[in-house]
Structures are given as structure tokens and as C-alpha cells.
Amino acid sequence: MMKALIVDDERHVREAIQLLVDWKSHGIEEVLEAQDANSAIDLIERENPHIIFTDMMMPERIGTELLAWVQQHAPRTKIIVISGHDDFDFVRKTMMYGGIDYILKPIDPDQLNDALAKAVASRKQEDEGSEQEQRKTIEINQLRPVYWDKILTNLIEDPSYYSSIIDTLSSEFGLSADNRHCRVAVLATDTINPAIRRKFAGSEDLLNFSLLNICNEFVRKHKQGVAFRHEHGHIVVILWKHTANAAELLESMNSGIGQTLGSSLEFGVGSERLLPTGFKQSYNEAILVLRQRNMRAARPRIRCFDPNENPRQTTVHLSEYEDELRFAVRSGQEKPIKDAVKLWIDQVEQMKYINAEKLELWGHEFSVMKARWLKELFGDKPITNMVPAGNTFVSVPLDQEGCLSPAQLGVELEQDLLQLSQLWTEHKRQDEHVIFEIVKHVDSHYAEDLTLQNIAERFFLSREYISRKFKQQFQENLSDYIERIRMDKAKLLLMNPQYRIVQIANLVGYKDEKYFSKVFKKLEGLSPNEYRKQGNQTTL
């Protein structure tokens, strides 16, 4: 909402300006008045008007003093001077202090409105420019973390990148050319307490933003390193100072996370390595540490890489139970699903060692099985948006001690399978409904140019899907059904001698009489004429 201020010690001048200006056409919704410079300054500070009309000669302060004050304290405000003095010095100072125009009394309405239009246009142009600058600044600030995430990811993945950004790392994060060692830690997000995720309303970006702020608060305070988000989604902490004491620093950082979020997290820590190749080596070790954690046992929050660790693990494949799980899904019942899942979970319960790699394997097996089932259950019908994504194996279901809970894992798998089963049940019901709708359509429009293609387009289904489902439901092809309906109608019409054969062919959907006769004879064993004669003899 734009505002204007009229400053003049003569009331009738203020009233004249009020009447002579078409305020609405200029987008000005509020007009204020002041009778001297001091009251004008009070109004400007309080109301921040966009446009000011002012006289030059007023009590206490002259107009040039007001112009100077406005330029210093409200520089974006546009000023139009209205004066009874044709004074060159006044005009010069008006221009010097950024005035838009200098109008002499008596006031010319056209000149006044033209000056206001120019002032409004100038102010809007500046406002738009200011908004663009603000947006640009906001965008730059938003992109800055993304930029550094990319830069630091490249540093991890390609050590040769180090030489090209060493100066930038030095100025931005304090990495000195004297530093020779580095160490990398990776924050585990798969075992984050669900209560923490709920605090952030399920927003992974907001959670990561908070975690990065806490981590950087510790490592950047004394220019020991930097925390960033790797393009693979990990939160990574790079250390290049006091790397031998990395565990202690991470313990302090974890305490800060616990105090802020209510629960500590887990870090995998690579060994101390030489720059610049050490970035990638230590990162890979930190990832390996996290992947080898035993989710079934209580674990240290800060776990350092041990080259001698080579855990042996038993293998219980989820795919070994595919038949039981598939039949349970097809049943559409909750109990068979629970029973099938329990067979697998009973085996998982006996495993003493389960790491992230095993969970990923089960997740992959489940994705493959699910894709195969979808093909079997739904064929080529597009179902991408209908099938629930499911959360099984995406995150680690933990018990109160922070260990993997096979029972909860089983519950999540049951929920996934139950959703799929319900979708399959609903799909079957819809299948039957749409096929009967197609039959109804054919029965009502048999005389039209019915093709599989136009039926498919009408019902938004593929031709292959309709053909297969129709055959499954009625044990005959759709094309055969259409011909049979047409022939049944034709036989009724043939009983009426008033209809010629060519008319009957047209009435049941055949443009070609000869083709109609050929189809009729193929299905009935008689030509239309023979059928008519036979019918008449029977009647007689």
C-alpha cells in the first residue's frame, strides 16, 4: 500500500493538492498531511510515506532542510516540491537532494499528476530492484551450503581436486598448508531415534540442517575442520587438526547433539591419513565401520576403524520365503501374512550378528520380489502411483536399548505386505467391475464401429490388458463376444421379412453385406437368407 505526505503551512494548498490528484489511479491509498517540517519528520519516521509533496517556505525549517533530512533518513522516498518562489537556488537544491520535480504555484493539475506519475514509477522501479536484490541475496545464502556440499564431496571423491581449492579451504575453513594429516567421520542416520525425527515432522532436510549446525559449531570453532552433507546423503565431518584426538572431539560433539535433540547418535571414524589422498581413504573406512556395526548388540557411539575386524555372519535370505509370502499376499487375509512373515523372523531372531549390509540385502531382495509380484498380480496395468512405497528396511527399527528389533522389523514387513494385499484385492474388484462395464458398453453399442482400440481409449486401459482380463473372466475373446452379440441381434431381425439383408447388416454394425453374410455363416452354419427361410418354415 503506497502512502503520500503533503507538507505545507497553508491548509488551502494542502486541500487543493488533495482534490487535484487522482490518487487511486496512481495506486496511492493513504494521504497524510503536515503543516510544518517538524511534524512532517515525525510522520515520516512513523508512517514511512513513499511520496512527499512539500513547500519550500515554512515556519521553523525551510523546505531545503526537510529535503536534506529526507535524503539522509529516508533516501528511497520521492519528493515533489511545490513552491511559490521561482528561485534557481531552490530548484538546484531540489535536484541535489533527489527531488523528482519543482512545481510553481498556482498548481497546474496536469503538471501535478505527471510529476506524481513519474515519482510513483521511480519508486516502484527501485522497490522491484530492491526485492530482486533481496531475493538474490536469499538465493545465494540458500545455495551456499549446497555449493560447499558439492565442493567437499568432490574433495572426498577425487583427491586431485585438493590442489585447486586449497586456497579457498584456507580462507573459508582455516585449512593451513602446514596440515599434513586428515581424518574423516561419518554420522549414522539410519539409527536416529524416531522421537528425534518426529520433532522435525519427518523433514530430513531440516534434521540434517540442525545436525550440520551442531557439528560445525564444534569443528569450525577452532578451525579444526568442517562438516557437510555428502551427495550420497551422509553427514561427513572432515578433521585436519588434532586428528589423533578425533574420538574425544566427536564425543563432545555427540554430547552437544544429545543436549540439543535429546539423544546421541553414532559416528563411524576412519583412521588418520595423509593429505590429500587420505580424505577418500579415511572416508571409505568410516563408511565401512558403519556398515559393519552389529545392529543386534549395544554399540559404542564413536566407533573407530579397525583393519583386523572381519566379522563372520550367517545368511538368512528373505527370498527363501518368497513362495510363502506371495501366497499370503494373494490370500487377501491378515493371518496368512503374519504367519508367513513369522517364518522368516523366527530365523532372524536366531542371528547374533546383523549389520547394515545384511539389511540392505534384505531390502534388495524384497524390492526384487515385490517387482515380480506386481508384474504377476497386475500385469501391464500402470500402477506406479497406486502401490505403497513401504518403509521396511529403509530405516532400522530399534528397541529401547538402541538395538535392532526383529519383532518390529516383522511388523513393518507385515504392514507392507498387507497394503499390497489390500491393493490386490481392490484391484481384483475393480477388474471385475471394469470388465462388466465393457460388456455393458458392448451390449449397448454393438451396432457402432467397435474396435479393441477405441474400447481401450474409452476405458483408459491397454488393449492387451482388456484382452487378457476379458478372456480370464468369460473364457472367450472380446472380438468373439462382439460378433456373437451382433449375430444374436441379426437373428432376431431376420425373423422380420420387412428388413432386407443389407439393412440388417447395417443395423448390427457391418457396413459390408458380403462380410456380414460370411461371418454369419461361419458362426451359424447357414447364410442369412438360409436362416430366414428356415425360420419361416419353422413358423409355418
TrEMBL record:
PROSITE patterns: HTH_ARAC_FAMILY_1, HTH_ARAC_FAMILY_2, RESPONSE_REGULATORY
Keyword terms: Cytoplasm, DNA-binding, Phosphoprotein, Transcription, Transcription regulation, Two-component regulatory system
Keyword DNA-binding set for record: yes
UniProt modified residues of type 4-aspartylphosphate: 55
Subcellular location: Cytoplasm
Residue span, HTH araC/xylS-type domain: 436-534
InterPro entries per record: CdaR_GGDEF (IPR041522), CheY-like_superfamily (IPR011006), Homeodomain-like_sf (IPR009057), HptR (IPR051552), HTH_AraC (IPR018060), HTH_AraC-typ_CS (IPR018062), Sig_transdc_resp-reg_receiver (IPR001789), Tscrpt_reg_AraC-type_HTH (IPR020449)
GO terms under biological process: phosphorelay signal transduction system
Pfam families xref list: GGDEF_2, HTH_18, Response_reg
Protein name: Two-component system response regulator YesN
Organism: Cohnella lupini
Taxonomic lineage: Bacteria, Bacillati, Bacillota, Bacilli, Bacillales
